[in-house]
Amino acid sequence: MSTATTHDAHHEDHPSGLLRWVFTTNHKDIGTLYLIFSLLMLFIGGAMAMVIRAELFQPGLQFVEPQFFNSMTTMHALIMVFGAIMPAFVGLANWLIPMMIGAPDMALPRMNNWSFWILPFAGVMLVSTLFMEGGAPASGWTMYPPLVLQTGDAFPFLIFSVHLLGISSIMGAINVIVTIVNMRAPGMTMMKMPLFVWTWLITAYLLIAVMPVFAGAVTMLLTDQYFGTSFFNAAGGGDPVMFQHIFWFFGHPEVYIMILPAFGVVSQIIPTFARKRLFGYSSMVYATASIAFLSFIVWAHHMFTVGMPLTGELFFMYATMLIAVPTGVKVFNWVSTMWKGSMTFETPMLFALGFVVMFTIGGFSGLMLAITPIDFQYHDTYFVVAHFHYVLVTGSLFSLFAAAYYWLPKWTGNMYDEKLGKLHFWLSTIFVNVLFFPQHFLGLAGMPRRIPDYAVQFTEFNQISSIGGFAFGITQLLFVYIVIKTVRGGSKATDEVWEGAEGLEWTLTSPPPYHSFSTAPEVK
Amino acid sequence: MLLSKVKQTLAALAGSALLVCSGGASADYGLNLPRGVTSISKEAYDLHMLIMWICVAIGVVVFGAIFISILKHRKSKGAKPATFHESTTVEIIWTIVPFLILIGMAIPATKALVAMEDTSNADLSIKVTGYQWKWGYDYMDEGVSFISSLSTPKEQILNQQEKGEHYLLEVDNPLVVPVGKKVRLLLTANDVIHSWWVPDLGMKKDAIPGFVNEMWFRADEEGTYRGQCAELCGKDHGFMPIVVVAKNEADYQQWVTAQKTAMDADAAAAGRDWNMAELMERGEKVYNSSCAACHQANGEGVPGAFPGLKGGAIVTGPKDAHVDIVLNGKPGTAMGAFGGQLNDIDLAAVVTYERNAWGNDKGDLVQPSEVKAAR
User: Fold this and answer.
1) What is the pTM of this model?
2) Which label site among A128, A144, B33, B36 has the fewest CB atoms less than 10 Å from its CB?
3) What residues of B are in contact with residue A325 (Cβ under 8 Å)?
4) Is residue B281 predicted with pLDDT exceeding 90?
5) Which residues have a Cβ under 8 Å from the Cβ of A392 and sit 6 or more positions away?
6) Which of A488, A521, A491, A519 shows the shortest CA–CA distance to A507?
7) Which ipTM score applies to this complex?
């Protein structure tokens, strides 16, 4: 009896101070590390966006050289995609999946530690290219050859950091799958899993399917540059367009990797604040799976202008248009969940509603972009920039804010400041639209993306966009303040936190115990 | 004290913002796609408007439902939550209806696409070559060829001079086409991928090294149409515009004749010996339009990115090696092969210029005939 007690006590005995974080195998600690890392990256990538918007405030070259401007657009995208959005969702997965399925921790805790600790090294390596001979990568995050082969000393560091980020993602994904498949509480069948768990399960499969493809593509770039191969070199019998096909075979599932978990988050939050069960649970699951399947057969819509055969263009147009169907089902289900509910509008709900409306706007422009004959006009203009920022910023990022406000009281045991949270939402929503909506007009009027200087007729909307950008950037400091304030104290949160919240995580104390569920709960 | 300082700063900022808005701006900003001057641009525009209005209509329904929910079904109004949470009928309806709408969009889209991709029966074929950072045009039948590069002065870009009406959308040699004729473009590139786009002509196509892509347009109205490179192609991607001038048949023929005469004159001049002053004068011009973007007008290059030519090993070394690198480029670097872009006189002039400018003072000169022999 006494040995059993010591054994239990030993479990709670984890290192403190800095080493706690270095050696931790605890899903909550690792989740926190992921979230802090992604927040830091959000600000580094955001600072680069500020440089871009400052240069574009007026026609002419004011602040930076064109080459450095290209580095900024490239690094901004790489850091936001691989450093901010993806790790933030992995952080959420770490924190929430064990608590949602009634498990004590993730299935592979040591690998979990490794998959996080690779990230800071990859991130530092990527950012360090800014100080290298020849400057940081400047060929766009899509790294199209032959242009990317003109990168200076930064080139191998770019490739290697992408490899590391990929390895980290794959390990994270394996962990998610193994945990969900093996560690669900008794009685929790697949079709009883919370939607956040479902969307992450599907996302994890996407990650495992496409990250190796991406690693292969960049490795071929590496051998083309240093080992005399000609995969993408036309003069050596290779094919520069083949890189684009391989890249987007990764790249299109990649954009769903960044949005499916967001669908999951929103599907948790809306029912809570509508005080009504999620409408069409099973159709939500099937819609997610359909979107994941379609994501593998639409990649070439990113490259309609490369000169494909007519039949190829038609296939990719039709397949891309089809995505509107399951995506539409999701939006209709969210709206029906709200319909005849009993809604309140705390900050998480505000961000979730903002997500539904603005993500749908991004979906509309996505549908327009799918139509090949008009994509010839939209392609590589600011219309595309506006489109993917609506789905990635007001989509993915807004869902992350919603998630942070929704679960922070559970994580910390303290309520956040509701007034400040709402202020954060309203400022973000207003300025993000001032920032990105005018970019639709710029693109339609003929402004290409990735240019440091522009013809004078684009001045007005660029200025509006820049003002929105600066204000949106500054607003995010408010988020940091709110989070720090909540972590340090505040009114105590109850275990349920939200009146209408359902799910296993709300049966735990706030903050939850170190090993979430030491005894598996029974799910009926 | 502090407050008044903040107020002052804000006032100054607002003032300068207003100044900027009124100063650098032009009145003809666009909100929408141009309707353009070709059948495909008009088709694209109509399709764009159709899809947009369908999206707006769907948006009104969806956002309307959200808005009504937010207004009516809120707890503060005493709304009690309903308990329904699924309906197979409804799910089927909102799967099928969007599908039908999509079919409605796909039919006109397919028609438009088939027409756009039909490059057969062209009246005129022009080969378009993308270079970092300019365009080369070869009229396949007329034998006319030239390079077209940005003509906006550097001073305007660096804000030392007021910006002109067509800032960044003006070139030295525009592409001239006859109005009402089906023009087929054959696109390729010499170094990296570029993309040829003029919104008013309704089409964009990538120019890819090792590939020949096709696109076509038929300009219905005389006029000048402006666009720019649409695929990131390096440092000066934002500075390689496209200008197309559509002329009536008579004016077009006159232009072709003038081009041919000029090319013949150049060919004749390439045979004779040139003196130092002539080569230096022409060399400076060629250098500024073809080389200065990287190596800089003062020959000092950009440290870490582009080597300087002032006192550089190659330009102060043997003539043959110098001519060779300009003709054939240096693989694996941004140094392109200029043999296909510049004629013998231009190449001889620019090599001579580089060997004698900025205090390099080699004193030797390269004749067009030597370049011809080195090709």
Assistant:
1) 0.90
2) A128
3) 95, 98-99, 102
4) no
5) A80, A85, A255, A258, A259
6) A521
7) 0.90
